[in-house]
Specification:
- The complex is a heterodimer of chains A (276) and B (366).
- Chain A is 29% helix and 27% strand.
- By secondary structure, chain A is an alpha/beta fold.
- Chain A has 2 domains: 220 residues, P-loop containing nucleotide triphosphate hydrolases (Rossmann fold); 54 residues, no CATH class.
- In chain A, the strands form 3 sheets. Chain A has a 6-stranded mixed sheet, with helices on both faces.
- In chain A, α6 links the parallel β7 and β8.
- In chain A, α4 crosses α5 and α5 runs parallel beside α6.
- The longest helix of chain A is centred in the middle third of the chain and has 14 residues.
- Chain A starts with a strand and ends in a 22-residue tail after the last strand.
- The C terminus of chain A is likely disordered.
- Chain B has 366 residues and is an all-alpha fold.
- Chain B has a single domain, classed as ABC transporter involved in vitamin B12 uptake, BtuC (Orthogonal Bundle).
- Chain B has 14 helices and no strands.
- Chain B is globular and about 65 Å long.
- The N terminus of chain B is likely disordered.
- Classes of the chains: A alpha/beta (276), B mainly alpha (366).
Chain lengths: 276, 366
């Protein structure tokens, strides 16, 4: 399922935090959203998974306006892993995953045999079936993320939206989460902090700064020293991953304000980022 | 020291955390609690300070239920059983169930396991209205209904006030609700205290105090229908919302991602909580601790899933309050203890014991 975001602006408490966003994700692609803290990544994503309403513009899934849909219908197409995953209540893992069936249920939300089966499969897909009886609050960060991915899969969506799913995880857990997301074969839109992970795992990157998209394209084309200096305020060298050949960044130091692009270390041609 | 990096298989990490939560199966538990509730109601009707024998009690109940006859000299004990104890036991069950259900709802509403119906300031608002009647004879035109009506109306007014003060452009946020409710609680309590303080009638002040700590001594058949209807309607609504309550407990963002309008659900819960608290407080005074403790004990027994919690908590609350009320009127008979005192005496040690015995998590690893 294709995501088309056009002219999207989002306001929170009367402040417009995200302006005129245009973003496309083709079916089955893994699209990353990167940008400094406070650039509007989460606000944009919150609007995409309907925690916020757009002030202007639309989010369309295969051409249908998501915000005009019934909320449950929307949740059957699009699942999300929001950043906050805290709760005061000691649900079991199985109960957390079962919540993924809510958009498919009526009334009390009593789970049918089919629901139970779908949840069990979702847990097995993320390799967490042995956790089913455990308390969600007793899990490690990586286990929690796996369970939340299982919940999203139990929603049987076509699109998955993730807000920095690798936060607070160790490196093995980060790779594991991204592999699970990739293996889902869904259309994925995810915010990522780690630019090197984004460069390796995303098919396409959108760079957001000050609430606007300032660059987009293949990671190799987008992650240029010029853009990194301008958007993140750091000086970086580009190298190639010795095995995959993916672009990777080595960070030097803070860039002086208004720094311009320096020649990439590996001499790779630097494609100009697309204009906002 | 070996320095070769061994690629260890990624086995699930061992945990020192709490053991997997043990959970009782709900259907047998509900069946057992229903039987216990019936037995408790019988005890509530059969036991008391005026010695009416069990055989008499059974006969009067039979007569009352089937429209049978009694001898003229039995009118006094029959009245005690049928007009005083029976409605009182039923009302205790209704109030216990209502407070427990509302406790569950409020805890999900403000997403805080330490919340109870009192946190929203609603019951202390009701207390202001009730005391205006008890101490100053307000709404005298309404006669015996003055107390209930005044308590219910002031509960709703308090709700409107808390709602208006806590509302923001984003709707009701849990933290603002708790803070506003707590502030209002102190405000209303100050008004009540001032009223008790300035009232010159000693007996009225005593009954005001009694009411503040909760009492079912005013129960009669007249007070049962409205409270029971409110509690049953609320319970049905909450059971139908159980899935949405689970999602809300995980946070607004998660709820939104699951296709649930957290803001609307929270408004719904707020109105349900206020209406039930108003209806219950109007007939029983401000009975504390039940709304906080029963949901917790229920979660310790059956886990956090609201479908399970809402099936068990009202029954548990009903059983608890029937016994608490019974104790409150027999322990120091003929003097009646305030229900709030008995709930605290029984509840606090039970609660602490249960909490320490089981690996119960309040969230945040507490």
């Amino acid at each position: 399922m294709r995501i088309d975001i056009t002219d999207l602006s989002v306001e929170v408490a009367g402040h417009r935090l995200v302006h005129d966003i245009a973003l496309k994700a083709a079916s089955g692609r893994l699209v990353g959203l990167v940008g400094p803290n406070g650039s509007g990544k989460s606000t944009l994503l919150r609007c995409v998974y309907r925690a916020l309403r757009p002030a202007a513009g639309t989010v369309r899934l295969d051409g249908t306006d998501l915000h005009a849909m019934d909320a449950r219908e929307g949740a059957r197409l699009l699942a999300a892993l929001p950043q906050e995953a805290s709760t005061e209540f000691d649900f079991t893992v199985a109960e957390v995953v079962a919540m993924g069936r809510l958009p498919h249920q009526r009334g009390t939300g009593r789970a049918s045999a089919a629901d139970t089966e779908i949840c069990a499969r979702a847990l097995a897909r993320v390799g967490a079936d042995h956790l089913a009886g455990r308390g969600f609050l007793s899990l490690s960060g990586g286990e929690k993320q796996r369970v939340l991915i299982a919940r999203a899969l139990a929603q049987e969506p076509k699109v998955l939206v993730l807000d920095e799913p690798t936060n607070h995880l160790d490196i093995a857990q980060q790779l594991e989460v991204l592999a699970l997301v990739r293996d889902s074969r869904l259309t994925v839109l995810t915010a990522l902090h780690d630019l090197n992970l984004a460069a390796v795992h995303c098919d396409e990157l959108y760079v957001i700064a000050g609430g606007r998209i300032v660059a987009s394209g293949a990671p190799h084309d987008v992650l240029t020293p010029g853009l990194l200096a301008e958007v993140f305020g750091v000086r970086a060298h580009r190298v190639r991953h010795p095995e995959s050949g993916a672009v990777q960044l080595l960070f030097d130091r803070l860039a002086p304000a208004g720094a311009q692009a320096e020649a990439p270390a590996d001499g790779a041609p630097v494609t100009a980022p697309t204009a906002p | 020291m070996a320095t070769t990096a061994q690629a260890a298989p990624r086995a699930p990490a061992p945990h020192d955390g709490p053991a997997p939560p043990r959970r009782l199966p709900v259907p047998p538990l509900v069946a057992a609690l229903s039987v216990v509730l019936l037995g408790s109601l019988l005890c509530g009707i059969g036991l008391g300070s005026s010695g009416v024998s069990w055989s008499q009690v059974v006969r009067y109940l039979g007569a009352g239920l089937t429209g049978g006859t009694i001898r003229p000299d039995e009118v006094a004990p029959y009245t005690i059983v049928w007009e005083l104890r029976f409605p009182r036991a039923v009302l205790a069950a209704v109030v216990g169930a209502g407070l427990s259900a509302v406790g569950v709802a409020v805890q999900a509403l403000v997403r805080n396991a330490l919340a109870d119906p009192f946190v929203l300031g609603i019951s202390s608002g009701a207390a202001v209205g009730a005391n205006a009647v008890l101490l100053f004879g307000a709404l005298g035109a309404l006669g015996v209904w003055a107390l209930s009506v005044s308590a219910f109306v002031s509960a709703l007014l308090a709700m409107a006030l808390v709602y208006a003060a806590a509302r923001t452009a984003h709707g009701l946020t849990p933290l603002r609700l708790v803070l506003t409710g707590t502030a209002m609680y102190y405000g209303f309590s100050a008004i009540t205290t001032l009223m008790v303080f300035t009232a010159d009638r000693g007996e009225a002040a005593r009954s005001a105090m009694m009411w503040l700590l909760g009492s079912l001594s005013g129960a009669g058949w007249g007070s049962v229908p409205i409270a029971a209807a409110a509690v049953l309607a609320a319970l049905a609504h909450l059971l139908l919302s159980a899935g949405r309550l689970n999602a809300l407990a995980m946070g607004d963002e998660t709820a939104a991602a699951l296709g649930i309008d957290a803001e609307r659900l929270r408004r719904e819960l707020f109105v349900v909580a206020a209406a039930v608290t108003g209806a219950v407080v109007a007939v029983s005074g401000a009975i504390g601790f039940v709304g906080l403790m029963v949901p917790h004990v229920t979660r310790m027994l059956v886990g956090a899933d609201h479908r399970r919690v809402l099936a068990v908590a009202p029954l548990l609350g009903a059983v608890l309050l029937v016994w608490v009320d019974l104790l409150s009127r027999v322990v120091l008979a003929p003097v009646e203890l305030p229900v709030g005192v008995v709930t605290a005496v029984i509840g606090v040690p039970c609660f602490v014991l249960l909490m320490r015995r089981r690996g119960y998590t309040f969230g945040g690893g507490a």
